[in-house]
Design goal:
This protein is an alpha/beta fold. It has 13 helices and 20 strands. The strands form four sheets. Strands 7, 8, 9, 10, 11, 14, 15, 16 and 18 form a nine-stranded mixed beta sheet that branches. It binds ligand BES, manganese (II) ion (MN) and zinc ion.
């Protein structure tokens, strides 16, 4: 799909050549600034009760007289926000994608000045509407003939719109990659398949990619990670990706993604209903791959490291049993009270591994707890961090990307439930505050750097009729990484304190 930007005043809209002209509208018809004959067509339709600007409704016109475009589709947006434009464009592209259109143009009327966020919203909405999962369903409707989307804006808006567009094209590619891998079932997306995906990305974008197999992981000493793979016939992988956009002396941002390609719960077996959705338990890993895809395309001057521990969580004669005690890479022993709390067991070793990069910040991303879904539903990801500055940067990135998160607490009292009589720590607290105790567990392994945790259990995929990966939080992460450019200096310089404020909540 080819996304373009073209500066064009609204009054020249009727003369623009495209197979379809999609016009998102907001506000009273007379104040939209649309030229004739578009204004007349719209006003007549409203008069006849066929359209309502407010209603989130749409109006399709085939070869309207006086308009160069073969088709015109008006869509009511409901507000002038980027979010509203996203909804309108999503609807409009979905409506025309199966028609014989190759080139669609998107315009917005009544939005005031378009900002970068609007351009980003329009591109992401279109990419979302055009994605089709085919890997194990080749009979799925073929993506239509649509090849090109031109976003129209005024000349004043052009610089912001162009910047938003190129960022969004990269994010959209990353989101699509993350969705695609999340959607692939457990027998098609195995740890080795994620490793191959990382290697392919590496080849395509000249990233350094290192993949450790079981023997390699043993050699590193990741006893906690390995305890999760014990019940599985499918060998684990530990994937290290590196994007080097800045001097080697600059401390990197490290992203750590949970890559459980299928979570049965292990010996603490999950109930059967909806267990299929545990193929999405590698959503964190997929979002790391997607973010690398976006960043590698945008080429910011920053160093980025991606760490993906990936395996299956299966029951078996050799599987870890409740009560087993394992030794993590950090040296802390862990009593595995519930084998279904496996995400934290693979993440803690990757978090310890992250120390060797002397990072400026580490963010882990994981479909970690059902409790987070209960707390926040499917709208916002759970954000946990003892560092106010880092938390603020991540929250702001989420808002900018329309990929929101919400901060959750980490008071030390929450750690009480993790106490064990038989190990340094247990892997579960009680049912209450389950998303927080999971984060408290991870926090024990993050003493050496600024750290944040994103629980994406509610946001990485959708259930029900539209079941499928969302590609979240690639948008949030990409915006966050871009916001950190130039903030890693000095942190890696020997003997020099990091030049930043550290605020511990
Ligand atoms: N992958 C799940 C979390 C999950 C469950 C995400 C349902 C989305 C929907 C995770 O490995 C898990 O099983 N967590 C347990 C933890 C519990 C045993 C402390 C959970 O949330 O039930
Ligand atoms: Mn689990
Ligand atoms: Zn899991």
């Amino acid at each position: 799909m080819d996304f373009r930007h073209h500066p064009l005043p609204l009054r020249e809209l009727p003369a623009f050549e495209a197979d379809a002209l999609l016009i998102a509208v907001h506000g009273p018809a007379k104040e939209l600034g649309l030229p004739k004959p578009l204004a007349t067509l719209l006003e007549e339709a409203i008069e006849q009760g066929d359209f309502d600007v407010k209603g989130g409704r749409s109006l399709y016109l085939h070869r309207p007289a006086g308009v160069k475009a073969q088709r015109v589709l008006f869509v009511g947006a409901g507000s002038a926000s980027a979010k509203a434009l996203r909804g309108a464009v999503n609807k409009a592209v979905a409506a025309v994608k199966e028609l014989g259109v190759k080139h669609v143009a998107v315009a917005a009327a009544g939005f005031g000045a378009l900002e970068a966020a609007h351009a980003e919203a329009a591109v992401l909405a279109a990419a979302d509407a055009l994605y089709v999962y085919r890997h194990t369903k080749p009979s799925a409707p073929k993506p239509g003939s649509l090849r090109k989307l031109t976003l129209l804006s005024s000349a004043d808006e052009a610089p912001a719109v162009a910047a938003g567009l190129s960022r969004a094209v990269a994010i959209a590619e990353g989101v699509t990659l993350a969705r695609e891998y999340a959607n692939r079932p457990g027998n098609h997306c195995r740890p080795r398949d994620l490793a191959d995906a990382a290697k392919d990305l590496g080849k395509q974008f000249k990233l350094k990619v290192e993949v450790f197999d079981r023997a390699g992981i043993e050699k590193i000493g990741m006893g906690s990670f390995l305890s999760v793979t014990r019940g599985s016939e499918e060998p684990p992988r530990f994937i290290v990706l590196r994007y080097e956009g800045a001097a080697k002396s600059q401390a990197p941002v490290v992203l750590v993604g949970k890559g459980i390609t299928f979570d049965t719960g292990g010996i603490s077996l999950k109930p059967a209903p909806e267990m299929d959705e545990m193929k999405f338990d590698m959503g964190g890993a997929a979002s790391v791959l997607g973010t690398f895809r976006a960043i590698a395309q945008l080429k910011p001057k920053i160093n980025l490291v991606g760490l993906i521990p990936t395996c299956e969580n299966m029951p078996d004669g050799r599987a870890t049993k409740p009560g087993d005690v394992v030794t993590s890479l950090s040296g802390q022993t862990i009593e595995v009270l519930n084998t279904d709390a496996e995400g934290r067991l693979i993440l803690c070793d990757a978090l310890t591994y992250a120390e060797r990069f002397k990072p400026q910040a580490v963010v882990d991303i994981a479909t970690l707890t059902g409790a987070c879904v209960i707390a926040l539903g499917n709208l916002r990801s759970g954000l946990f961090s003892p560092d106010d500055e880092l938390a603020a940067a991540l929250l702001a990135a989420g808002e900018a990307a329309q990929d929101g998160a919400w901060r959750m607490p980490l008071d030390e009292e929450y750690e009480e439930g993790l106490k064990s009589n038989f190990a340094d720590v247990g892997n579960v607290g009680g049912r209450a505050g389950g998303a927080i105790t999971a984060a408290m567990f991870l926090k024990r392994f993050t003493k050496a750097y600024r750290w944040a945790h994103l629980d994406i259990a509610g946001t990485a995929w959708k259930s029900g009729g539209a079941k499928g990966g969302t590609g979240r939080p690639v948008g949030l992460l990409t915006h966050f990484v871009l916001s950190q450019v130039g903030q890693g200096e000095a942190a890696a310089a020997p003997g020099k304190a990091p030049a930043r404020k550290r605020s511990r909540a």
